[in-house]
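Usage

Read records sequentially. Each one opens with the input sequence:
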Amino acid sequence: MFDYDKKVEENRKRNEKYIKEFEKWLNEKSLVKKTIRKHLNNIDLYINDYLNYYEITKVEDGMSSVYSFLDGWFIEKCLWASKNSLKETASSIKKFYQYMSENNYVSEKDYKDMCSFIKENMEEFLEQVDAYDNGTYYDIF
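and closes with the structure output:
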């Protein structure tokens, strides 16, 4: 196993703790199982695939990568990307970092800033989905 692969695997194992705690946190919010499963799948994609894709990023540092994930990677790499799935994924990321904030893994200020950032840029993210779907995505750049 290459050193990079080993570090990715170590980061994934480290993330298991957060995923398990997040699942417990979602259950305490009395969400239905289907919604919990969707949030967990979305977060697994973000923290275990995306945050390890270009360079290995700890989940605590992952809020700074939300823009590039929602504005590009998710749209380009996920065949199921749609306006609805992008909104759901953004919602999962906000919920996950709310849990992280409530447990003092990240600062409340950073969490609130990230939520504001997502809200302020959601229209742009949705436009990118449209551009990708109609073949003009790469014309934007």
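Summary fields computed downstream for this record:
- The chain has one domain: 3-139.
- The two ends are 37 Å apart (CA to CA).
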